[in-house]
Amino acid sequence: MCQQCEDPDRSGYLERLREGVADRGWLVQGVEGAGPYPPWAYTVGLSGYGLPELVATGLSLRTAANLLNDMASHSLHASPPEPGERIPLRGGPLIEVVPLAEPSAHLVFAVALYGPEIRALQLVHADDQGRWPWSPEFRDGHGGQPVLGVRHVR
């Protein structure tokens, strides 16, 4: 059973998140996939620096955590990515930054720590052929990466 499930009022889990964020600056919260819904993950803690939280969908939790940790570190030391920006990842896919339409609907624990007015950016990735999830050909029509906002075309 997960830590969240063992703590029905979430107070103990939220306290562990607060401590982890205070110790490390941010954490990555993973959400297991279920049925037709793929796994996804998001940062918790960047809001404390006045930055948007970061989200990745449709990747394994390990891959998403690596991506989010790298981008969170960059955001703290340089600047966060901008909506519409495309970023080639070394050894990985091209990503495009999409602002979440309603972060409070998806980032439950970030909202619990920082309130419903948080901002968030999704790191949307192209498939192996360079196609995006808004294309019907993405992953040869198999989808698997929900986009939680509207593209900001530059």
From TrEMBL:
Name of protein = DUF4262 domain-containing protein
